[in-house]
Inverse folding.
């Protein structure tokens, strides 16, 4: 049996445009009728009232998704190349002359799902809402200390 | 004494080189020989990819709780653009983190890192700790800056790392030669030679059969060969080796090949080919061998006629020791550390005098007695090197310094405010909101709240989204109810959930408040805080969210949080025909993710056996143990937060069920459950005039439309056939009470909750002959085999006959656990 169309779209969007998809869903969730229509398509529970969540802009989200996609493609290529000693031996000396490009490529190389942005990994997902209670308390302290310094 | 080992030497790119192997070898030996001392490992969370491997290496040596992870906002590599600010922050965080561990001594395994890695360490910031030591590998870049530090950036980097060395109390040198150098370049530091060792893997192979054939087929080594292993930089002096080989007497040379094992870049290899050609050697004479496995390297060492190492400068010269470990006769240059590694004057030559080198090669290859002497010497000499010996030297030195120092004051409680001020002071200028958020996340993960209780996270992601009211959800609700009332000792229970829209788990504050009237002490559904000694239990079955959350779970795991999952069955893997298209792949992905962590608890021995079988076939062996346990489920519906409510026609239905013998089947109506066979059987029985009811409790499942149509249009519907869909637990309890016997015709099951629920209601059981039903019910049920309606009809008739005679098996002998008993078993099996 095939998965509902909405679910397929949801899964593919999660895979390819996670940031844009999150923003789109949060926008849609502000409109109960529209949200419920889509939820029925995806076999998901409906909502009774608008669901308001903080959202980022489409442009920064698009940039994040694009950057993630580029890194994923470059990383995949680099990982494939690394499996071929001949390619590796020819490319590495060339990169020695460009240490910063080498460092960027290395970042892409190791950017596997295990090092993806996470609220728990210490990088990425920079919204304040992504902080844990202790993180939020520390953020408050950092801000207060900085303000005291400025005063 | 508490010793903290900074493990960054095994985390940067050095982990693929000698420094990484040295770091692991020495640290493991220190852990093995720690005696009364406490050893903590400090790992850099910015280099996340290396953490699991290190945890694996120490699995049998140190409690996982003694491996601590710190994080800072990256990148910090010198080659990364605009990394200086991050680096300063990271160095400050690293220093405060080390101090927060209250060490009596700190060992830095490598300080010369971070040029193109997210390494951070500034020893000068550790002013409160007196006993600081570090390993020194060589001073080669300092002596040859033109070669090794070709630009300003690398010179500045090296200078800063060298300044760090000066701040160490003790320098552990990897050879006597390096100690002499340390006394010259760092005269104010105490230094000690602790020597080195190889990986224990390098030894004479027990079975050398087939090595020759493999050498010939892989690398065309058809003659006896002289071996070199190492880099191709100028100081390695490999062209001299080729020249010396070319200068051998013709007869000797023609009997031998020269094998050079080097993972070098193509331009350097091509230079060597030119050198060989100039000396009149063919590609057949000089074999260049690229990257090879450790096993292949060991074979090459053990089968070589002679190992030659002409290096002009080494910190130690590890390939020489590896060759000796594998029983190879060795000759080496008489420079730097090599005389002390080789330990035999006769085996040394002047690497800059080709004639002397060629004479030594010739002597070894043409004089069997000399070659035998070298071989015997290798066996003796290699015994002088041992990681345990090196570790004991380290520990003794650290003890001496600790005794001469006043004890490190015990760490005062962490003052978060002053810590934040101190760390912010390390960053120049304003910090943007984004940077502060990233910094706050890192600090929250690095500096745990020592007063916070240990948390026992229970994943309720599916229950939170939608309680389907299936047996799986009953399991989740029942265990959760018990755990909330009886938290594991020393823990608070925190239900958590994740959604597909974001990475990371949140406290299920709202859900728990609304559905369980439970106050978890939180104010909203925040992302979770965690400590290295917390525990995560994946109780709810959520096969799509868990794989999506794999990075978040791995992050928790890297920080030391132990992670277990509950496994209900592997049926989509072993019986995919009963499931929707794609279920097998989804279940497989879920299994692969949960198998990366610490263990699973299965709902029966059969499921545990299935899981172990699947794991052995699909998951590579790892050094860290994986725990597979099993328990049995509970059966008292009243302790599973039962849903309430009786429909209007409930009384009439129950009356009808009580009016004649009623056989009850409880489970979702899906192909695996054997409903089609049951309907066939009862059609036969009703045709024969048997006055019995069939009651089915379970909602409509998948791929079973034909059976559903039969149920809906059956002439006995509402008379002798009752299908109760989506009824409350309260009603189900009453239906069990009204039934005469319980039938389980499932063709495959992980557990079969209805078996124990039926037994709890003292109902006789008619079960398909499955291993899991035998495991639960033993001899206390009537078993049937066969897939036809007649088979089940015969079994029912047999049971009726036995029951009339009063000799039908009863379910009284089945041990029916309550959910509380089952949950206690669960807690006993979890390592908390």
């Amino acid at each position: 049996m095939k998965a509902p169309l909405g679910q397929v779209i949801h899964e593919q969007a999660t895979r390819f445009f996670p940031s844009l998809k999150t923003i789109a869903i949060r926008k849609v969730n502000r409109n109960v009728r529209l949200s419920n229509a889509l939820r029925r398509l995806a076999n998901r529970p409906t909502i009774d009232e608008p669901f308001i969540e903080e959202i980022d802009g489409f442009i920064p989200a698009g940039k994040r998704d694009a950057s993630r996609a580029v890194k994923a493609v470059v990383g995949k290529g680099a990982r494939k190349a690394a499996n071929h000693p001949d390619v590796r031996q020819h490319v590495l000396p060339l990169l020695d002359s460009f240490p910063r490009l080498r460092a960027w490529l290395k970042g892409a190389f190791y950017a596997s799902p295990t090092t993806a942005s996470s609220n728990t990994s210490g990088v990425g997902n920079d919204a304040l809402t992504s902080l844990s209670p202790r993180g939020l308390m520390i953020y408050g302290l950092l801000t207060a200390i900085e303000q005291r310094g400025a005063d | 004494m508490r010793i903290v080992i900074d493990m960054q030497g095994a985390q940067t790119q050095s982990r693929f080189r000698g420094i990484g192997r040295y770091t692991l070898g020495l640290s493991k030996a220190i852990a093995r020989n720690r005696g009364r001392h406490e050893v903590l490992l400090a790992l850099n969370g910015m280099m996340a990819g290396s953490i699991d491997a290190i945890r694996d290496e120490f699995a049998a040596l140190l409690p996982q709780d003694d491996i601590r992870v710190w994080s800072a906002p990256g990148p910090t590599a010198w080659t990364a653009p605009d990394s200086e600010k991050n680096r300063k922050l990271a160095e400050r965080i690293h220093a405060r983190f080390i101090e927060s561990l209250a060490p009596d001594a700190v060992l830095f395994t490598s300080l010369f890192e971070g040029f193109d890695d997210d390494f951070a360490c500034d020893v000068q910031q550790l002013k409160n700790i007196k006993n600081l030591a570090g390993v020194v590998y060589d001073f080669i870049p300092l002596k040859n800056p033109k070669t090794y530090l070709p630009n300003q950036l690398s010179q500045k980097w090296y200078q800063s790392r060298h300044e760090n060395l000066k701040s160490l109390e003790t320098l552990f040198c990897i050879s006597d030669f390096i100690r002499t150098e340390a006394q010259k370049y760092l005269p104010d530091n105490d230094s000690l030679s602790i020597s080195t060792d190889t990986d224990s893997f390098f030894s004479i192979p027990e079975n050398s059969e087939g090595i020759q054939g493999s050498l010939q087929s892989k690398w065309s080594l058809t003659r006896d060969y002289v071996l070199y292993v190492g880099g191709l930089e100028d100081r390695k002096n490999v062209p001299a080796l080729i020249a010396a080989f070319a200068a051998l007497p013709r007869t000797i040379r023609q009997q031998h090949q020269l094998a050079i094992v080097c993972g070098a870049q193509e331009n350097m290899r091509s230079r060597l080919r030119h050198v060989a050609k100039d000396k009149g050697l063919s590609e057949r004479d000089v074999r260049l061998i690229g990257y090879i496995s450790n096993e292949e390297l060991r074979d090459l060492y053990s089968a070589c006629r002679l190992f030659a190492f002409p290096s002009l400068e080494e910190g130690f010269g590890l390939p020489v020791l590896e060759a000796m470990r594998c029983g190879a006769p060795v000759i080496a240059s008489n420079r730097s550390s090599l005389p002390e590694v080789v330990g035999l004057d006769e085996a040394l030559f002047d690497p800059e005098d080709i004639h002397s080198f060629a004479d030594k090669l010739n002597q070894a290859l043409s004089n069997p007695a000399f070659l035998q002497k070298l071989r015997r010497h290798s066996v003796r000499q290699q015994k002088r090197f041992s990681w345990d010996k090196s570790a004991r030297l380290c520990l003794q030195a650290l003890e001496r310094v600790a005794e001469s120092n006043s004890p490190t004051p015990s760490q005062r409680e962490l003052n978060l405010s002053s810590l934040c001020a101190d760390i912010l002071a390390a960053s120049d200028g304003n910090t943007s909101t984004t940077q502060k958020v990233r910094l706050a996340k890192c600090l929250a993960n690095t500096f745990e709240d020592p007063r916070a209780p240990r948390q026992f996270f229970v994943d309720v992601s599916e229950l939170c989204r939608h309680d389907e009211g299936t047996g799986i959800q009953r399991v989740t609700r029942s265990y959760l109810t018990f755990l909330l009332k009886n938290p594991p000792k020393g823990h608070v229970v925190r239900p958590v959930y994740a959604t597909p829209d974001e990475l990371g788990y949140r406290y299920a504050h709202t859900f728990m408040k609304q559905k369980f009237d439970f106050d978890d002490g939180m104010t909203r559904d925040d992302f979770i805080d965690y400590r290295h000694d917390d525990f995560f239990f994946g109780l709810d079955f959520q096969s799509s969210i868990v794989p999506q959350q794999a990075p978040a779970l791995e992050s928790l795991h890297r920080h030391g949080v132990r992670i277990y999952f509950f496994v209900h069955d592997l049926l989509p893997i072993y019986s995919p025909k009963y499931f929707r298209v794609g279920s097998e792949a989804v279940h497989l992905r879920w299994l692969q993710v949960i198998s990366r962590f610490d263990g699973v608890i299965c709902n029966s021995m059969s499921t545990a056996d299935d899981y172990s079988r699947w794991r052995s076939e699909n998951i590579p062996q790892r050094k860290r143990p994986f725990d597979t346990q099993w328990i049995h489920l509970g059966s008292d519906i009243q302790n599973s937060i039962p849903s309430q409510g009786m429909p209007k026609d409930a009384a009439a239905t129950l009356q009808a069920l009580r009016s004649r013998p009623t056989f009850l089947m409880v489970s979702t109506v899906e192909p695996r459950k054997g409903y089609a066979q049951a309907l066939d059987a009862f059609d036969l029985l009703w045709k024969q005039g048997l006055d019995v009811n069939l009651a089915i409790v379970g909602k409509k499942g998948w791929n079973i439309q034909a059976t559903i149509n039969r149920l809906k249009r059956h002439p006995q519907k509402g008379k002798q056939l009752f299908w109760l869909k989506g009824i409350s637990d309260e009603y189900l309890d009453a239906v069990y009470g009204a039934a005469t016997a319980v039938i389980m015709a499932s063709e495959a099951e992980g557990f079969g909750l209805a078996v124990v629920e039926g037994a709890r209601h003292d109902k006789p059981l008619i079960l398909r002959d499955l291993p899991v039903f035998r495991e639960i019910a033993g001899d206390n049920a009537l078993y049937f085999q066969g897939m036809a309606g007649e088979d089940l009809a015969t079994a029912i008739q047999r049971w009726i006959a036995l029951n009339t005679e009063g000799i039908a098996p009863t379910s009284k002998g089945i041990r029916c656990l309550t959910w509380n008993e089952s949950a206690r078993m669960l807690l006993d099996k979890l390592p908390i």
About this structure: The helical segments of chain A are 5-16, 18-28, 32-41, 58-82, 85-96, 99-110, 133-150. Chain A touches chain B through 54 residues (CB under 8 Å). Chain A has a mean pLDDT of 73.
